[in-house]
Write a structure and sequence with these properties.
By secondary structure, the protein is mainly beta. It has two helices and eight strands; from the N terminus they run βββαβββαββ.
């Protein structure tokens, strides 16, 4: 029996943790990214961010704001489509260190190996410009971006 492919859009979040001109990033297989996670079925993106930043990264978030949304669209595999909520926080406490993460100064960001779409939205996010982006990829590996759109909110 053939199963129908799911077209439900996965929901996740990224959070820019900012302090003293630095940004907390994680290094994943040589690629620097904002920290984040997935949004559970019965929680809001903000609840997911607050919970997972505590569980995964040892951060107690006291204040957080939604600054953007990113939609990842995969032409060849719609079941991989993803909606990413982008938050920013400078009001937090660190209760334990995480080996995956490291503080990077804003002026270092251009020298780091990051996903190609970061260069399109990250400067807006750092400057607190609210945004919405749609990135179109040929496959779920996110290696080849076909096109994109960005709008200010």
């Amino acid at each position: 029996m053939l199963r129908k492919r799911s077209t439900t859009t996965k929901k996740s979040f990224l959070c820019l943790i900012v302090s003293n001109g630095g940004l907390l990033l994680r290094n994943r297989q040589g690629i620097w990214e904002a920290i984040g996670g997935s949004v559970g079925e019965h929680e809001s993106p903000q609840q997911a961010a607050t919970r997972q930043l505590y569980e995964k990264y040892g951060l107690v978030i006291n204040g957080i704001s939604l600054i953007g949304e990113i939609f990842m669209v995969f032409d060849k595999d719609p079941s991989s489509n993803e909606q990413i909520f982008v938050f920013k926080s400078s009001d937090f406490s660190v209760i334990r260190q995480n080996e995956e993460t490291n503080w990077k100064k804003a002026e270092e960001l251009g020298t780091l190996k990051m996903p190609e779409h970061y260069g399109l939205w990250l400067p807006k996010a750092i400057n607190e410009q609210k945004f919405k982006c749609i990135f179109y990829f040929d496959s779920h590996e996110r290696m080849h971006m076909l096109k994109y759109s960005i709008e200010a909110l």
